[in-house]
């Protein structure tokens, strides 16, 4: 974008429209990993229907493509643990009765372990070499990661957030970001949950009470705002 006036876009959002300076905005794509999206990964070991998440791929892809065109900072996150499990709390590993536990060998390598095939991001949304990938041991993107330092380094004040799952890693990250002073706009159709009702309520919780955690917009509204900004050039 050529100058500062090109860089401001107004997104039709709930609970109200929001104007963002794109030069201070990052697209954050949460955990679009094979471990959550495909059969044989962590999500399925928990008893989930992973097919529920596929609907978010195309909307994320279109926003990712537009963000790349504008030169916006793009950050991908991945949930996962070190091979020796030293960053995986026993309380997380021992939780519930999954068919395979974190670290167990599965069809896409060890479940939720960094460097394994299942830990990688799905091909449709694969990061460019120039994009940032944040590896996180928890549900939130700020806990035990360099996320805060990266955002500060690039002068980021606003986050466009999408990914999976709506009520778990997306909501946790948005809550962490909101407490740190970031304006978060969650892309509704760019998020998905194994439980459609949790997706719906997860978005409602963000935008309720005047936007207690942030704003919610459709991918079409984000694309429209980016497109309108570009025509100002
Ligand atoms: N289980 C579930 O819904 N989600 C996760 O464990 N991680 C993320 O949301 N990425």
Biggest sheet strand line-up: 7-4-3-8-9-10
SS class: alpha/beta
Distinct small molecules: tricarbonodiimidic diamide
Q: Can you count the helices?
A: 8
Radius of gyration: 17 Å
Question: Roughly how many Å apart are the termini?
Answer: 7 Å
Helix percent band = 25-40%
Major β-sheet, in short? Answer: 6 strands, parallel
- From the spread of the alpha carbons, the general shape counts as globular
Rounded average pLDDT: 96
The ordered H/E elements are: EEEHHHEHEEEHEHEHEH
Give keywords.
233 residues; alpha/beta; 6-stranded parallel β-sheet; two-stranded antiparallel sheet; 8 helices
Structure report:
The structure is a single chain. The protein is of the alpha/beta class. Helices cover 33% and strands 21% of the residues. It is built from eight helices and ten strands. Strands 7-4-3-8-9-10 form a six-stranded parallel sheet, sandwiched between helices. The chain has a two-stranded antiparallel ribbon with strand order 1-2. It has a two-stranded antiparallel ribbon with strand order 5-6. The longest helix has 16 residues. The mean pLDDT is 96. Bound molecules: tricarbonodiimidic diamide (TIU). The site of tricarbonodiimidic diamide has 10 residues, from helix 6.
Outline:
By secondary structure, the protein is an alpha/beta fold. The chain contains eight helices and ten strands.
């Amino acid at each position: 974008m050529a100058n500062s006036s090109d860089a401001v876009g107004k997104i039709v959002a709930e609970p109200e429209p929001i104007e963002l300076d794109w030069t201070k905005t990052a697209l954050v794509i949460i955990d679009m990993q094979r471990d959550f999206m495909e059969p044989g990964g962590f999500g399925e070991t928990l008893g989930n229907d992973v097919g529920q998440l596929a609907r978010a791929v195309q909307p994320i892809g279109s926003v990712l493509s537009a963000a790349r065109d504008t030169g916006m900072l793009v950050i991908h996150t991945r949930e996962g643990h070190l091979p020796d499990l030293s960053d995986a709390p026993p309380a997380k590993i021992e939780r519930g009765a999954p068919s395979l536990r974190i670290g167990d060998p599965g069809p896409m390598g060890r479940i939720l372990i960094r460097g394994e095939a299942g830990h990688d991001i799905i091909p449709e949304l694969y990061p460019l070499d120039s994009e940032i990938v944040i590896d996180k041991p928890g549900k939130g993107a700020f806990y035990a990661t360099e996320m805060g330092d990266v955002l500060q380094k690039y002068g980021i004040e606003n986050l466009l957030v999408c990914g999976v799952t709506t009520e778990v890693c997306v909501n946790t990250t948005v809550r962490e970001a909101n407490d740190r002073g970031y304006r978060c706009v969650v892309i509704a159709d760019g998020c998905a949950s194994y439980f459609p009702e949790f997706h719906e309520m997860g978005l409602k919780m963000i935008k309720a009470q005047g936007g207690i955690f942030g704003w919610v917009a459709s991918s079409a509204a984000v694309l429209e705002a980016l497109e309108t900004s570009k025509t100002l050039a």
